[in-house]
Specification:
Number of helices: 4
Helix content: 25-40%
Order of helices and strands: EEEEHHHEEEH
Number of strands: 7
Strand content: 15-25%
Length: about 160
């Protein structure tokens, strides 16, 4: 049974002067399972094909597909997570305690299943992907947070600044 972490309610309206309102976050997260493989693969293919266009030319995007992809060992190791919005996959990613640096199941030449020595080796962040809407939403959230901080600082008495 997948583990679903229920986040605490968020209190909104604090900076606007409005009465706080309890709202539930739009996103939940949980560990990925083998049953999630088709949705993860679809999101990864879309993210690789679309998100990299801003940074790479078409030939480089195609080349990226040969080294990027789903590493199912992360799911088996229970170190790969999903972020969901309702029943829709919004993002995924994980970490590894294995020597493999990057690549999916298809990139066999880069695979090394040896476990890292956690007393001296750092875990590796692996395969972070997000749907385009979530990437744009996060950019908007960062801008809104900056705007809120600016408004709050303007409201503080000059001695507190």
């Amino acid at each position: 049974m997948p583990i679903v972490c229920e986040p605490a309610p968020i209190r909104s309206g604090m900076l606007s002067g409005a009465a706080p309102v309890e709202t539930q976050p739009l996103f939940t997260h949980r560990l990925a399972t083998e049953a999630d493989l088709p949705a993860i693969k679809s999101l990864m293919e879309l993210a690789i094909a679309e998100h990299l266009k801003a940074f790479l030319d078409p030939a480089q995007v195609e080349l990226s597909k040969s080294i990027m992809g789903l590493d199912t060992q992360l799911i088996a190791d229970r170190t790969y997570f999903l972020v969901e919005e309702g029943d829709r996959l919004a993002g995924c990613g994980g970490w590894s305690r294995r020597a493999t640096l990057y690549g999916g199941d298809h990139s066999t030449s880069q695979r090394n299943a040896a476990l890292l020595d956690m007393s001296k080796d750092a875990a590796r962040i692996r395969a972070i992907q997000a749907a385009q809407a979530e990437r744009e939403r996060e950019q908007l959230r960062v801008q809104e947070d900056a705007d809120r901080r600016r408004v709050l600082l303007q409201r503080l008495p000059p001695l507190l600044k």
